């Protein structure tokens, strides 16, 4: 499990393995920060002794404004996931689509989709599906289930999918 601490320009990674935390410091000050809380001495020791809980194995779509990717530079530095909102980019210059939703699978950002809901026809059209390099080949059923849940939440009667990335065909 990967835990992030520090400010956007100074990130500390806490790798939790075998219920013990190991620090990869970005700076001495960053080691004492935990999501805005200053830790020192005993608090830091208590945090290091805390038991890690496994992340839930789930797949979800993130809003472009989700706190996990809100700080674009941090998301790129931590996850290698370059994300930009392209709604103001001319169509011919868009890389991924108009309003793209990142795909979070477990603790990894594995892809993105460009959905649009046609209310008049009751159809959720997914204009594009992109898998990130290294995305697990067996993730597609979970991604599809998540898209179907989005369609249900929107009240769509049908889902239209584009050609899938090679890894998910």
Q: What are the defining features of this structure?
A:
single chain, 169 residues, alpha+beta, Aminopeptidase, 2 domains, 5-stranded mixed sheet, 3-stranded antiparallel sheet, globular, disordered N terminus
What does this structure look like?
It is a single chain. With 169 residues, the protein is α+β, with helices and mostly antiparallel strands. It is 24% helix and 32% strand.
Question: Quick recap of the structure?
Answer:
This protein is 24% helix and 32% strand. With 169 residues, the chain is an alpha+beta fold. It is globular.
Proportion of helical residues: 10-25%
> What proportion of the residues form beta strands (DSSP E)?
25-35%
- How many domains, in number, for the residues? 2
The CATH architecture of the largest domain is 3-Layer(aba) Sandwich
The strand line-up of the biggest sheet is: 6-7-8-9-10
What is the 3D form?
globular
Number of extended strands: 10
Query: Could you give a short account of the major beta sheet?
Result: 5 strands, mixed
Rg over CA atoms: 19 Å
**Structural class, judged by helices and strands?**
alpha+beta
By DSSP (H or I, 4+ residues per run), the number of helices equals 5
Mean pLDDT: 77
Distance between the termini: 29 Å
SSE pattern, N- to C-terminal: EEEHEEHEHHEEEHE
Low-confidence stretches: 1-48
CATH topology of the largest domain: Aminopeptidase
CATH class of the largest domain: Alpha Beta
């Amino acid at each position: 499990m990967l835990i992030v601490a520090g400010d956007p320009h100074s990130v500390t990674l806490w790798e939790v393995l075998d219920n013990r935390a190991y620090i990869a410091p970005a700076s001495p000050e960053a080691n004492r920060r935990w999501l805005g809380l200053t830790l020192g001495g005993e608090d830091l020791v208590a945090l290091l002794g805390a038991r890690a809980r496994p992340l839930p194995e789930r797949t979800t779509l993130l809003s472009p404004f989700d706190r996990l990717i809100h700080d674009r530079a941090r998301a790129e530095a931590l996850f290698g996931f370059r994300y930009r909102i392209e709604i103001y980019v001319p169509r011919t210059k868009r890389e991924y689509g108009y309003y793209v939703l990142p795909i979070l699978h477990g603790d990894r950002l594995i892809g993105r989709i460009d959905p649009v809901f046609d209310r008049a026809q009751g159809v959720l059209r997914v204009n594009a599906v992109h898998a990130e390099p290294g995305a697990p080949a067996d993730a597609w059923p979970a991604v599809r289930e998540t898209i179907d849940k989005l369609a249900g939440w929107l009240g769509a009667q049908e889902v239209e999918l584009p050609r899938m990335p090679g890894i998910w065909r």
